[in-house]
Amino acid sequence: MKFAGHHILGISQFDRGHVDRIFEVADRMRPYARRERKTSVLEGAILGSMFFEPSTRTRISFGSAFNLLGGHVRETTGFESTAIAKGESLYDTARVLSGYSDAIVMRHPTEGSVSEFATASRVPVINGGDGANEHPSQALLDLFTIRSELADRGRGIDGLRIAMVGDLRFGRTVHSLSRLLTRFSNVRVSLVSPSELRMPEALVEEMRERGVDVVETDQLEVGIANVDIVYSTRIQEERFASQADADLYRGRFRLNQSIYTALCEPNTVIMHPLPRDSRVGAQELDEDLNDDPNLAIFRQSDNGVLVRMALFALILDVADQVDDYSKPVNWSTERRF
Amino acid sequence: MKFAGHHILGISQFDRGHVDRIFEVADRMRPYARRERKTSVLEGAILGSMFFEPSTRTRISFGSAFNLLGGHVRETTGFESTAIAKGESLYDTARVLSGYSDAIVMRHPTEGSVSEFATASRVPVINGGDGANEHPSQALLDLFTIRSELADRGRGIDGLRIAMVGDLRFGRTVHSLSRLLTRFSNVRVSLVSPSELRMPEALVEEMRERGVDVVETDQLEVGIANVDIVYSTRIQEERFASQADADLYRGRFRLNQSIYTALCEPNTVIMHPLPRDSRVGAQELDEDLNDDPNLAIFRQSDNGVLVRMALFALILDVADQVDDYSKPVNWSTERRF
Amino acid sequence: MKFAGHHILGISQFDRGHVDRIFEVADRMRPYARRERKTSVLEGAILGSMFFEPSTRTRISFGSAFNLLGGHVRETTGFESTAIAKGESLYDTARVLSGYSDAIVMRHPTEGSVSEFATASRVPVINGGDGANEHPSQALLDLFTIRSELADRGRGIDGLRIAMVGDLRFGRTVHSLSRLLTRFSNVRVSLVSPSELRMPEALVEEMRERGVDVVETDQLEVGIANVDIVYSTRIQEERFASQADADLYRGRFRLNQSIYTALCEPNTVIMHPLPRDSRVGAQELDEDLNDDPNLAIFRQSDNGVLVRMALFALILDVADQVDDYSKPVNWSTERRF
Question: ipTM, 2 decimals?
């Protein structure tokens, strides 16, 4: 259950105790994220933020999390400016860059690259996404959001009923979240997708073996009827075998206020990994839901900062010092707009 | 007259009292910008610097202003790395990014985009330029420079005589400055431009209605003869209807040392929004003026830091705490070159 | 021997006393780079990191060095976002940007550009590389590494025997290092290169005039036989006059474990400016040396942080205050991987 000095590479390294510990620390980060207090616990520490693939929100979320703990952030974005383009191995890159910081968060388009990098790094590495493989902080913030939203309803993750909707074949976030859910009891997962985009069979088997009750359907109205959470994801039209197939399913997995009201239990929580496509015709998660208090997508994004603060605090072993280094915030957080 | 918790989106939101307050705070920022003292008043605060259009000097000026107040800066530059490119709405972008920081400065190529973003933001937003629309900190730093330069001559903004020279049709900075000047008394503005590039008629009318004495001319020698300030801007040749027109005016709005000496009153202040084009043939504001003490263009750029510090201090309501959190600077500011 | 308020533009400005002073300060930075202690000596100071040409490792190394001293970093990378692209002179860029920071590090593809920039800057400028011209912190970190490695063997730089291997004609780092070595006594330099890529004759003459014992050879086995240091650099095939020449030399300057063991004295130190090309066929410095304790290439890269901290501390005149502003590090530097 110790995190100090460990890499965070994938969710397979976490048992339920780890998850509980991360969430407990994340909970304690709320006063800082809400700017009620500030802490200088990582004053003088440096995060190396190595984004070899662009992802503004993930990058800024990690960077802000480190800043909120008092540390500095040094960044690189993109490949154009890197020695990797000149034939440098990930081994060398890791040996060099890990001499510049106290922790590294890395995103890279190639599966397995972050683990390879971590092997040579001299400081703890957090995987910020390596292609289709892993993005553990996203899975954790998703689960943390489920936990927070259910807590507001007096419930825990055990006994959760969740629908995952959309592209379940290629969606990294739903795969990771599904795996994390196997650590909990009495979970029922309703998988709602076109047949072309079903959750990989092996993963469905894995969930079932570990006691998750899995139901598969291509009917939205069936899938989202009796759940606590609807986790919606984007379907890209080009994923279908033919235009005829795409046409067949067009708009069938869309969620808007009237569909929500008609099909879902009251207070069903709506989640989405973001970004959502809001262009006309995207038919994903309509903007008419923006004022619905059950739309949790921005709380979900906010929770990312809490979870990332927790991960940094844990791998650098300052989780229990954060409050000791804290002060009230002295600027105004008033909003007059 | 309260700024705390407000957005800074355009100059129309400022009356004379606001302008006076901003400038009074900006004046008090001088010891920090000059590195006589340092302050940690915003220690722990995070600025989200969102430049969806490149502008190195504006970006660094805002970032340094926030650093000088003790805060951290998280940045994004360009579109390539943003979810906006994947169809995310400004609403979603704002909801997400505003969860990562205490204030946001945003630049975007589209008119109105920053206001739209601000509507969904949960923290105060400063417009760092939205296309041809607004760039309020630039207008404020221009007016602050006029005030500072005239103060050195024992004068105030009331009674100002200013010439604006060059492209007055498309130049956002001269438009905003003109509007700001309507808040003051006995101002005389001399507009010097080719006829194709005259100030928009509506803006000239607006100034006159508010009591500004406006004179228009295409003769540089007439326009800059009896003024306190010459505000020069660039004329781009492609703005002319024909090459013949461009040829007709070529070099006619150029300012250099001999023209300055021949036509201007002694100690007339020279301003320019920068960057100036110093390539051969640009004929804008010649480098032989670089050593003239009346060339205020770099003081103008320096003043940008003061004004931006003031804006941050005001919207976060720490203007009156800045000195309480201050210390003498302990490094050397000696220059031996 | 005073550095305060001076630019660092090239190694010609350093005599032996300067070098000794830089290294003495760099030595004192070790506890901070090792995260045993942290210092806030430059808290409130801002580094302007202006990389008009990409170089991730140099940029991050400088930025981390400034952060380790407690300061903030504002950055720009690339040309796309700069006023220079709109015709702004380096003079104007320097006047403007130097108003935003306490020191500037600048990299630029054009020889002489950093010196030109420095002339107009109002704060001290460190040259982070101007084309083929100078990159003084690289030369200093190379020499500092030689000094550190030899100190572990009970030796000093005087009396050094070093082999420089590879492309000695175009390699900026070996040129600068060679010049720095002329400040020391009884130095023997063995230059190992294909005849097309020999060290420029003028530089060889300069070394000899200043008392360096220079031997030239195109035989690796001769050149690296009796030295303390092998400084390996990359040979690019396209440098050869013909493919036949390239074929002739292919693999002849490669260093791997078996060649090292067969030809070098025990404990010969291996250096390289990095990045090294680890692609198959690069034949430069093989990865089978990675676990050899005599491979100093990552210590060399780490030393860059020490040397850059020293340069900042010296030009801002805080070298003797660093420890006064220090505290023990409170986070864990444990490694469990």
Answer: 0.95
